[in-house]
């Protein structure tokens, strides 16, 4: 063979390849180029990230591989953030945790994290449907070491965004090894609580200076104070301990979530097919927004993921590949029974038996009879190949987010719907390896159970005359009954024809009409049955959540979704009253003109949906004038909506912490609000049959009505405790600044945890300061940490708010301060009960009333009620009346105090 013979085809090949690549870059913008570095050391580089022009999608995703160490370091952004790995499934970059340490002789140290304008963040949410956001990362601030405070500061304003403090009561936490293990000396909180999308902030670590006269103590054992940010989902406690003990820093990671920011939403991005980032076939797009956003319209970009059952890189053409756990034909030896429940494909118990992990079930053989479980605790009672999974107990999960093939069914709560895949039959048929309708006698059916376009999917049925499992080869068998049916139908037709011949075509028409009518009647009947189920199941649900209701006259109503949409003007953003960690609260106007507050959960962390249900269960047990009343719920949405009485006047926090000017809350109002709230919490702790710990006591959870009466709210985190139990072990829950240090250390929840948090509220009432605040010079401060030293050093009055100094007596302030002190005791056992706190506050108020010559006869409920109901205007009035007295008094007081407490 001659050389030129070879050359020609080669040239043609080269030319065609070249024309292909130039066509590709011009018209399709397919990155990355083929000569891009694929790795840096052991780290596999994933597009849209890349090293150098032509390799990254946009310059924000430019990486640097620094060969100054072995192995080389992969750096991000401004060359300061070190990348450990990429997670394409979730859209995360694992990075080295930002941390700061405090040397033995140092009192302050800080480190800053500057993400500039990079499309990266520590706390982003991802929207799957109009109702739910999933958090992408789970970063925590963590402090290990004794008597230290870590503040997260917004670098631009120097404001505090988060605080975490530790105190050790015992002095024997000496070795670094013990610091993590010991039962004191660490604290932490979820970065999710940091309501900021600021990309530049700092961790500032300071030592608490209580032990100035014991400096020798400090220098011996505190060298290992460390504050860091790490992700609890991607790291183990073991990794954390190793990191803190400085043994192996490579196991622990923090995570940054990234997003594509050329367009703010998927919808807009999709319109430009040349720049749309979700390139792979079987990739999906989700809107991304900052965790502190209040409105659905505040998305900042989008994120691509491979569809369920696919893995790989959705940003590359054909980057998503069918996963290893996918099976289109189940193995021969698959278990088909669990107890007496039949397991049919696509469901299965192990890999190779189910179609994909979405259809995995488990069989708990240890129970009698064995139970078939879906997820962790849903007991399956039946698998229906018509697209339903039925349960023994009602389900509340919101399956509308696209991480499974399930959508909660609208009509009842004990089954959920499933589709085999989120594709139309037309698209599905094109790919023979994944098309699910295996049997020759099966047909594909497009379904849309929820009405959301994105939930469009398909299922398979056996065709007419066949029954069985269309998802298996030879799964559809001839239906013997169908033959009989056909024969009888043939007979009818034959008869019709015969009759037609003699009587005429009119009768045949009548016959057909009858058949149609019969079908219609049948479907109407089915609808009726469905409606009956609906009612029955709601009844079931209610029975479950309202197991013992003593207050039969205060029934929990079930509202329809339609009614709720009307009440909130389709959940209009202008109706948003507030947004808490767990959901959005809307103002609604019912058809009878009643104004209500409607709470809608937002976050789809499994546990938080359960919290929602928890709240219904708890509130249905409670009736107290200082606890916000639950009027009803709406069960037609994926996440139940809760409907409360509308409390019109904002929160105690709003009224105490005024941005500009002085708080309008008088000392009398404050004392009353404190007494009422203490009473409500005491009631919860000792409520008739069951004890309830609130777990999230804070001033923003105390609502005020138009007469400034306190209403304790937000029971999402609360827990029932059987009366014969004094504590339970739970996952740490609470708000930083209010969290009981003992609970944090031991995870043991007791009623005294609420007492601690209530102590913090009393402190806010006394000082007018937030649990975390800044001094005038901008220095970050922790209120509870400053309080104890202040009382000891006779500096208390520096902390107390001016208005309180003017209106309260010295005796009252000291009494409250002593009460706070014991409430904030590090040991729960040393704290008073909520009942004792309530009594003490009542005593203080009674003494005050006596002084003002307003007698409250002992136990006179009516007078007490009148006092508590004193409206804002009348209490203002009372303030004015008392102003004269108190002014004289204040003067005396000032003189007296200046003697005792030189300032
Ligand atoms: C991208 O990073 C490389 C180092 O890896 C640097 O040389 C280059 O200037 C960067 N490109 C841009 C546009 O910033
Ligand atoms: C970070 O970027 C800024 C300007 O963009 C530059 O002045 C600074 O030197 C950079 N820092 C590092 C560590 O590269
Ligand atoms: C501040 O923190 C850094 C990083 O951990 C550490 O290297 C440095 O020694 C610390 N400085 C002081 C004064 O503690
Ligand atoms: C930490 O502070 C507490 C209370 O302020 C004090 O009793 C304790 O001795 C301190 N612990 C250490 C290890 O300095
Ligand atoms: C703590 O004490 C040290 C040394 O006595 C002092 O330099 C530092 O400013 C003090 N810090 C605070 C927050 O008071
Ligand atoms: C701390 O160390 C100093 C000298 O290193 C020693 O004299 C002192 O007793 C130590 N203090 C404690 C409490 O161990
Ligand atoms: C550190 O831990 C990581 C993961 O935990 C492990 O892969 C690595 O080998 C460890 N390195 C050393 C030096 O022990
Ligand atoms: C989002 O909606 C709210 C209320 O409808 C509006 O005030 C706000 O300006 C909107 N934000 C953006 C970014 O469009």
Supply the key terms.
glycoprotein, 6-stranded antiparallel beta sheet, alpha+beta, about 900 residues, disordered N terminus, membrane, globular, 5 domains
Structure notes:
- The protein is of the alpha+beta class.
- The protein folds into five domains: 21-80, no CATH class; 87-258, no CATH class; 337-482, no CATH class; 531-646, 2-Layer Sandwich (Phosphorylase Kinase, domain 1), CATH 3.30.200.20; 650-899, Transferase(Phosphotransferase), domain 1 (Orthogonal Bundle).
- It is 31% helix and 23% strand.
- The protein has a six-stranded antiparallel β-sheet with strand order 3-4-5-6-18-9, with no helix packed on it. The chain has a six-stranded antiparallel β-sheet with strand order 25-26-27-28-30-29, with no helix packed on it. A six-stranded mixed β-sheet has the order 35-39-40-38-37-36, with helices on both faces.
- β23 and β24 form a beta hairpin.
- The radius of gyration is 33 Å and the shape is globular.
- 38% of the residues are buried.
- It binds 2-acetamido-2-deoxy-beta-D-glucopyranose (8 copies).
- One 2-acetamido-2-deoxy-beta-D-glucopyranose binds next to loops.
- It is a single-pass type I membrane protein.
- InterPro entries: Prot_kinase_dom, Protein_kinase_ATP_BS, Ser-Thr/Tyr_kinase_cat_dom, Ser/Thr_kinase_AS, WAK-like, WAK_GUB.
- ATP binds at residue 606.
């Amino acid at each position: 063979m001659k050389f030129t013979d070879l050359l020609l085809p080669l040239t043609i090949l080269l030319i065609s390849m070249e024309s292909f690549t130039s066509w590709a870059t011009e018209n399709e913008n397919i990155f990355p180029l083929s000569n891009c570095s694929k790795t840096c050391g052991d780290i596999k580089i994933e597009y849209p990230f890349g090293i150098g022009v032509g390799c990254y999608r946009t310059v924000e995703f430019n990486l640097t591989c620094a060969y100054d160490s072995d192995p080389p370091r992969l750096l991000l952004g401004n060359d300061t953030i070190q990348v450990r790995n990429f997670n394409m499934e979730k859209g995360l970059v694992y990075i080295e945790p930002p941390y700061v340490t405090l040397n033995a002789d140092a009192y302050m140290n800080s480190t800053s994290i500057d993400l500039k304008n990079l499309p990266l963040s520590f706390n982003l949410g991802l929207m799957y449907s109009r109702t739910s956001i999933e958090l992408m990362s789970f970063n925590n601030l963590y402090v290990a070491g004794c008597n230290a405070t870590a503040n997260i500061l917004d670098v631009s304003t120097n404001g505090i965004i988060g605080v975490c403090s530790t105190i050790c009561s015992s002095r024997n936490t000496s070795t670094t090894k013990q610091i993590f293990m010991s039962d004191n000396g660490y604290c932490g909180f979820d970065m999710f609580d940091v309501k900021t999308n600021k990309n530049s902030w700092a961790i500032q670590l300071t030592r608490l200076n209580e032990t100035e006269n014991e400096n020798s103590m400090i220098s011996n054992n505190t060298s290992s104070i460390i504050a860091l940010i790490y992700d609890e989902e991607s790291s183990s406690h073991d990794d954390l301990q190793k990191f803190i003990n400085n043994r192996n820093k490579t196991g622990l990671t923090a995570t940054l979530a990234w997003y594509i920011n050329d367009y703010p939403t998927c919808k807009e991005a999709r319109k430009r097919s040349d720049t749309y980032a979700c390139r792979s076939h079987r990739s999906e797009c989700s809107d991304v927004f900052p965790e502190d956003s209040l409105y659905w319209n505040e998305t900042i970009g989008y994120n691509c993921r491979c569809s369920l059952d696919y893995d790989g890189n959705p940003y590359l053409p054909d980057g998503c590949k069918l996963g290893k756990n996918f099976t289109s034909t189940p193995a021969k030896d698959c278990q088909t029974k669990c107890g007496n429940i039949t397991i049919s494909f696509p469901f299965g118990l192990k890999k190779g038996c189910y179609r994909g992990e979405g259809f995995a079930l488990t069989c708990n053989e240890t129970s009698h009879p064995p139970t078939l479980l879906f997820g962790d605790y849903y007991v399956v009672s039946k698998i229906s190949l018509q697209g339903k999974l039925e349960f023994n107990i009602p389900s509340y999960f919101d399956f509308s987010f696209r991480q499974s093939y399930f959508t909660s069914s609208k009509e009842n709560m004990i089954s959920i719907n499933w589709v085999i895949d989120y594709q139309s039959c037309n698209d599905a048929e094109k790919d023979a390896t994944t098309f699910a309708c295996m049997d020759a006698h099966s047909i594909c059916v497009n379904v849309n159970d929820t009405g959301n376009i994105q939930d469009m999917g398909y299922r398979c049925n056996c065709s007419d005359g066949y029954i069985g499992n269309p998802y298996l080869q030879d799964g559809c068998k001839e239906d013997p009954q169908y033959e009989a049916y056909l024969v009888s139908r043939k007979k009818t037709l034959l008869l019709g024809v015969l009759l037609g011949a003699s009587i005429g075509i009119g009768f045949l028409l009548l016959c057909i009409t009858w058949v149609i009518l019969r079908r219609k009647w049948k479907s109407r009947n089915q609808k009726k049955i469905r409606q009956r189920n609906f009612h029955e199941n709601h009844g079931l649900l209610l029975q479950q959540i309202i197991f013992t209701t003593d207050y039969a006259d205060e029934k929990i109503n079930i509202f329809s979704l339609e009614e709720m949409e009307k009440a909130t003007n389709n959940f209009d953003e202008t109706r948003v009253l507030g947004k808490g960690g767990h959901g959005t609260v809307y103002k609604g106007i019912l058809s009878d003109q009643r104004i209500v507050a409607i709470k809608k959960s937002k976050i789809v962390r499994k546990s938080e949906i359960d919290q929602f249900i928890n709240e219904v269960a708890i509130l249905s047990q409670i009736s107290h004038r200082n606890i916000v009343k639950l009027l009803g719920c709406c069960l037609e949405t994926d996440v139940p909506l809760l409907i409360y009485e509308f409390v019109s006047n904002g929160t105690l926090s709003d009224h105490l912490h005024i941005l500009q000017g002085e708080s309008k809350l008088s000392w009398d109002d404050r004392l009353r609000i404190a007494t009422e709230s203490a009473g409500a919490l005491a009631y919860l702790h000792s409520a008739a049959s069951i004890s309830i710990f609130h777990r999230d006591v804070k001033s923003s959870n105390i609502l005020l009505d138009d007469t400034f009466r306190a209403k304790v709210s937000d029971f999402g985190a609360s827990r029932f405790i059987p009366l014969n139990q004094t504590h339970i072990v739970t996952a740490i829950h609470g708000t930083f600044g209010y969290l009981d240090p003992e609970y944090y250390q031991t995870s043991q929840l007791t009623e005294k945890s609420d007492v601690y948090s209530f102590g913090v509220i009393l402190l806010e009432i006394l000082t007018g300061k937030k649990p975390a605040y800044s001094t005038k010079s901008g220095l970050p401060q922790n209120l509870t940490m400053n309080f104890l030293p202040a009382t000891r050093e006779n500096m208390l009055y520096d902390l107390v708010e001016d208005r309180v100094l003017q209106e309260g007596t010295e005796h009252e302030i000291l009494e409250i301060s002593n009460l706070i002190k014991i409430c904030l005791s590090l040991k729960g056992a040393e704290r008073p009960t909520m009942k004792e706190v309530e009594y003490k506050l009542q005593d203080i108020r009674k003494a005050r009333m006596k002084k003002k010559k307003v007698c409250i006869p002992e136990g006179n409920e009516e007078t007490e009620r009148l006092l508590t109901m004193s409206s804002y205007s009348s209490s203002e009035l009372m303030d004015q009346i008392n102003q004269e007295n108190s002014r004289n008094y204040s003067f005396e007081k000032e003189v007296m105090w200046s003697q005792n407490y030189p300032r």
